[in-house]
Design a protein that fits this description.
five-stranded antiparallel beta sheet, mainly beta, 16 strands, about 240 residues
Length: about 240
């Protein structure tokens, strides 16, 4: 039985019996591939619990029912797995990373905007983290700005009212007001800090600083928006 060339849908044979089996298999594959949602591109162990139609990109090191299917898309079907080969340019939403990805012929590239024949490319990303405001004049986040990233700005929202201080600013150690000053402290107050793009050559933390008296509590949710470059393959 032949498959279609682009997305591997099974074709009916002449005078085939049980035609509904082949048609239903084709529809199941379509259901998994159209508006493609990959639950993960990094999970190596097939989930113990899944729903028909759940799709995963099978990465290196895959085990169990996915062993031998590295690089393929695994689609849950009738309690098992159906495998499809992705084609260059396939697009998907990667659910566990809340990001879009493009298949570059070898791997799923998160946030890809462009790439060359040898997979050099430009990618965009947004990452977020919750920062607890602890007592003191400032709070340093984990290193959220990636190495060699081109950062365009920071946005955020106060998730629990900031106490102690009546205003705050946000930046990095070398420029503590780069992404906003005079920010409000009430729950729901927000910041939108676009800035002139800047390259951070090493992993960098955000710095939240009081503009008057010391913080005593609160929390903020911060998101960093940036781009990264990737080098071409050697072969």
């Amino acid at each position: 039985m032949a498959d279609t060339l682009q997305i591997g849908l099974p074709l009916l044979s002449a005078a085939q019996a049980q035609k509904h089996v082949t048609v239903n298999e084709a529809l199941t594959r379509l259901d998994g591939l159209v508006q493609l949602r990959l639950q993960s591109v990094t999970e190596t162990i097939p989930p113990a619990v899944f729903a028909d139609g759940d799709s995963y990109a099978v990465p290196s090191g895959a085990t169990g029912d996915w062993a031998g299917a590295v690089g393929r898309i695994a689609i849950a079907s009738n309690g098992g797995w159906d495998f499809i080969d992705p084609q260059f340019g396939f697009r998907a939403v990667v659910v566990d990373q809340a990001a879009e990805a493009v298949f570059d012929g070898a791997a799923w590239r998160l946030g890809a905007l462009s790439f060359t024949a040898n997979r050099a490319g430009l990618s965009a990303a947004s990452v977020e983290l919750d920062v607890a405001i602890t007592p003191g004049s400032s709070v340093v986040s984990p290193a959220i700005l990636p190495e060699r990233s081109i950062v365009f700005g920071v946005t955020g929202v106060v998730t629990a009212a900031i106490t102690g201080a009546t205003a705050w600013r946000i930046g990095v150690a070398t420029d503590d007001q780069r992404y906003g000053t005079g920010l409000q402290t009430s729950a729901g107050a927000w910041l939108s800090g676009p800035s002139t793009p800047i390259v951070y050559w090493s992993p960098t933390s955000l710095l939240v600083t009081s503009e008057d008296t010391d913080f005593t509590g609160g929390s903020v949710r911060l998101a960093v928006h940036y781009m990264t470059l990737s080098i071409p393959d050697t072969a």
